[in-house]
Structures are given as structure tokens and as C-alpha cells.
Design a protein that fits this description.
about 230 residues; two-stranded parallel sheet
Length: about 230
Amino acid sequence: GVLPNHLLKMIVDSQPTIFETILPWSLTEILASSLVISTTFLFEVYQSVARTHSLGNFHNIVSILLKCHLRDDVLLLLPSIFTVKSEKDVPLLRTLGLVLAYIKANIAYRRNIDFQLLLPSILISLQSKNLEVRKLSFACLKSIALIYEYSKGLELEIHGKIKMFGAFTKNVIILKTENAKILVENLVSTENDVLSDPSAIKRAVMCLLSGKSQEKFEDRILNFLTT
């Protein structure tokens, strides 16, 4: 369902508020209007704000994007941000921070949401040479693991399946919650190694996929990651 306003406020309030205004008020007014705006344009606005050094009106723009347009689609910003290059990985850091705030807001209200479709993007960010990016990535993973923990025995709602893949949704392999939980727990267990050496995540995933469990868990993970 649609994320309630009080959760939106929690996410927005967690974001930095110290930036100078850089976007023209006319654009802000357009975003805040009731106009139907394409997702592509919204992503371009977000990427423009996220990669600017001063990141001027970041708090206000993110607030408007969440409240008026993206709402539960906010996690789509993560895979879109990998194409944006910037000094010190500022766009990726800010996006991971936003994603983490979104996941924590769901945890605060015990929403039974499965965020497994974020895992391929998080695996990419875990390979970053930037230590802060890797730390935030693990914070996201541990928050996802917490949801699996308090939702034991439930088959969770897969977040963003249709919006993330559109016409290709039918081709996407979705993990059962119990398998997604095992994958996330395995990734979390690599934290010390990966924080020391980003290349360790590749070795860890290869090791995981080379296993031969009776349940053929490894085959399901490989199919999930390759779709």
C-alpha cells in the first residue's frame, strides 16, 4: 500500500537540512503541483540535485518527490544512481542514506515488506572503494535482515516488483522469503572482511554459490541474481 504521511515525514526528517537553495522556485512549484510528471523526469531531477556539490535544496526536493510523486517508489532511485558519476560518491551516499531511512521507517511500523529486489544494487555498492558507501550498504542489509527476523513464518510482500521491472516482471525470479533471508544473513556475515577489502564480496558470493545444499538454495540465488 501507499506509505502513510507520518512515515514520509520520518524519512524526510532524517535527511540533511543544511544545504543552500540551487533549484529555481518555478521547478519546485512544478514538482509540488498536481501535474502528472514522468518517472524519468523525476529521476533526472533527483540525480541533478544529488550530484551537485552544494546539494542546495536537497531536503526540500526530496520531501516533494516523496510526498507528491515517488512515495513507495523511492527505492527505485538506488539502481538509477549508479549511472551518476561524482567526486567522493556523493550521489550514491545520499541515495543509500535515503534508502536506509525508508527501510527503517517501515521497520518502525512493523510493515511486513520484503526488500530482496534491492539486493543486486546493494551488491554493487558493496564493491565500492569508498568505505562509507560500504558501511551504508551493510546498514541497509542489516535493516533488511531485521525485517526477516521479526516476520518469521510470514511470506512477505515483495516491494517494487512491478514498478522496478515493468514489462519484464514476468521474467524476474523472486526468492521465497526464507531463501532471501539466508542470502541476506550470509551477506551480513561478510561485513568485517568487506569493510577491510571490497573485493572480498565477490569471493564471498562465489563461495556461497559454489555450495551444494540439498535444497538447491544456491541455484535459486544464482537465478535470482542473473535475472
